[in-house]
Amino acid sequence: MAGAVVIGAGPGIGRSVGLRFAREGLPVALVARDGAKAQAVADEVTAGGGSALGLAADSSDDPALRAALDTAARRFGPADVLVYNAAVIRADRVGELSVREHQRAWAVNVVGAITAAAHALPGMAARGHGTFIVTGGLPEPLPASVSLSLGKAGVRALTFLLDEQYGPSGVRITTVTVAGAVVPGTATDPDRIAEQYWLLHDQPPPRWKPEVLFPRDGLDKIVM
User: Fold this and answer.
1) Which residues span the domain enclosing 142?
2) Domain CATH for 91
3) For 95-106, how does the pLDDT look when each residue is reduced to its tens digit (9 = 90+)?
């Protein structure tokens, strides 16, 4: 059975998304730079009766990320859902980071998503279905979060480009722009966000859209 892959599967959104998709019976491959964090989520899935695989890969390392995706495909088949949730989240203002630090942030925040998309979306398009969801954020750029503001603007643009290229082939491509800190028990609770991801994957074709602002675009506004 084709399953789901979550890149950036540490505590928070990644964990909640993995558990949510597993509840629907999908096997889940969880990828994180820290393999122990990915395995911890995988253990939660299997403890609940699901199938899961924890994999270690830095999303900025092209060969390692592609190898992890290949391992997941060998175990569970070609992914029907791929969620890119990796990001470097830090506070920084203009002039505070070195070129190398900016390159590192951009590599994780944007280039890793490009690598994942390039690896998975052609196969989804050939099969005529599939879902690629990117965790976005910062609907407005913040002077105190320069590298993250640039990165989230970059992946937002990427999803629109990918939607134009692969959407006509039947692939759902969406960025969920999370408008606020992810905190349990609030409007941006990770479990609520994960529910949004599932409904985006499960929604009928006429309701597809390349961007959702959460929580402003509530579930009832985008899902039939």
Assistant:
1) 4-222
2) 3.40.50.720
3) 999 999 999 999
